[in-house]
Amino acid sequence: MESVEAEKQYRRAIELRPNYATAHHWLGDDVLTQLKRFDEAIVEGKRAQELDPLSAVIATNLGDVLLFARRYDEAIAQYKQSLSVDSNFYYTYSALGEVYALKGMHQEAITALRKGLEIKKDDPQSKAYLGYVLAKSGQREEAMKLLDELQKDSLTQYVPPYSMAVVYIALNNKDQAFTFLMKNAEVHDTLAAFVGVDPLLDDLRSDPRFAELLKRVGLNP
Hints:
Elements: H1 2-16, H2 21-34, H3 38-51, H4 56-68, H5 72-85, H6 90-102, H7 106-119, H8 124-136, H9 140-153, H10 161-170, H11 174-186, H12 208-216
Helix pairs in contact: 1-2, 2-3, 2-4, 3-4, 4-5, 4-6, 5-6, 6-7, 6-8, 7-8, 8-9, 8-10, 9-10, 10-11, 11-12
């Protein structure tokens, strides 16, 4: 399995350079998270942050691991800590919006996502999460407008099929959601690696098609 081999490589890198923050970072955020070994992933993320406390990416990705572990309140606290490192890192607002949405804190989610889009107007992930929370909060028409916007954006820039799928999930259109998730697997988008752990996909996990999706991205059902 690719993740198992990657783990060996990162651990070897850490053995050679124990204080190499990036190796701890990617071992936790990427490999161990995909393997659902969340406690170990969090330990690695915290070690990376200790070694590089001024990295907004490391701080935010530790929040991602907490989110994937369904430790939402801790994820919120971590994202807020990341913003104290860099208050203009758009991705942190996007991630914060996602976790607020998962907790049903719709207004907080919308506020965070709109802030992220003020910083980076063309970010498809923030638009997708905003479409998700709008649909979940009953604002389906606004969610559809964002979906149309993402489709138009895809004509001039790369929009991960995953982003489209997220909005369709909230609109309860499972057929379209699976269509775009399968496309995401075909193009080997980096987000595909997290289909096994992303809570946004929980509404799809009982569908027989989900096992096929996991196989497509090289994960065990």
